[in-house]
Amino acid sequence: MEEKKYKVGQIVWADLTTNQAGTLKEFYKAVLGWQEYPVAMKDEDGGYDDYAMLMDDQSPAGGICNSRGQNANLPATWIPYIYVEDVEGSLAKSLDLGGKLIHESKKKDGTYNYVIVQDPAGAVFGFGKMQ
Fold first, then answer.
1. Among 14, 37, 80, 84, who pairs with 62 as Cys (CB 3.0-4.6 Å)?
2. In this protein, which residues make up the domain named Glyoxalase-like (predicted)?
3. Ordered strands of the 124-128 beta sheet
4. What's residue 1's pLDDT?
5. Residue 111's Cα: distance from chain center in Å?
6. What is the pLDDT of residues 20-31, one digit of tens each?
7. Domains, the chain
8. First CA to last CA distance, the chain
9. Is 34 helix (H, G, I), strand (E, B) or coil?
């Protein structure tokens, strides 16, 4: 039996989406000592890099992403991602309780990779079944 990497409800990642990704990756490198790992992206205007940021031991710290492509409509804030077993069920419950769907990412089979929602108070977070 395969051991799960994450526990339900655990914050597993955070992304900052901004129109200043290049500048801010340098800011976080200087302030927190993070290292950058460029992640090649494409949109209708061509190719660009987003950045996975790593700590000195190469463990993940978070992502700094450009406000373009699939991230074009995301707010410029750190968005935490939380592990759930059932993305569709958690999304339905969120919407039933007054949440709002902000962004979705689906697999080729039409099921969700992850979603970003806004809670009834306006806070934004993501959840999915990250591996």
1. 14
2. 18-125
3. 35-43, 46-54, 60-66, 11-18, 78-83, 124-128, 112-118, 100-106
4. 45
5. 17
6. 999 999 999 999
7. 11-128 (3.10.180.10)
8. 15
9. coil
The HSE-up count of residue 2 (CA atoms within 13 Å, CB side) is 4
The pLDDT score that the predictor gives to residue 127 is 96
Residue 116's CB is within 10 A of a number of other CB atoms, namely 23
Q: How confident is the model at residue 4 (pLDDT cuts 50, 70, 90)?
A: low
For 67, the token pair is 């406000």
Nearest to 48 by CA among 75, 26, 21, 73: 21
The secondary structure element, H or E, covering residue 30 is helix 21-32
pLDDT at 99: 97
Instruction: Give the C-alpha separation, 131 to 124, whole Å.
Output: 22
| 115 φ, ψ (degrees, to nearest 5) | -135, 160
